[in-house]
């Protein structure tokens, strides 16, 4: 579906609760799209390694500062992102989580709008940077993060030694 270049102007970002039905649907869509990309890697891990890897992705909604939906002018949910307050050995990190854009909305700037909303939330909470974890099988996500100024960093927090395919990024806010 071709849309005019200004189509992203019709998209608004709304803060919602983790349990919002639209947000849950988008997270399920993300899981359905991403899981097959890592199937071979998952199959090559031992049961203990699989359990360790899975533990890295446990997300307690109580640690979230915000959950954001990108909505089209008709209210259709186009994308999702969340900001998590993460306590690490180095202190508090603010982490971008669960960024997903529906396929029909890709290329419209939805991901960028969501990332900027998360960054604004993090800055309002005193963060000097936002960190994120992605994986080697998500080249479109990697390209977006790099385009927006995210730089590769070492693994951090819950991912250390648990996610062999993990890639880690940060963007300084100040």
From TrEMBL:
Residues 24-174 form the N-acetyltransferase domain. PROSITE patterns: GNAT. Keywords: Acyltransferase, Transferase. Coiled coil: none annotated. InterPro entries: Acyl_CoA_acyltransferase, Bact_Acetyltransf, GNAT_dom. This is GNAT family N-acetyltransferase. It comes from Gryllotalpicola kribbensis.
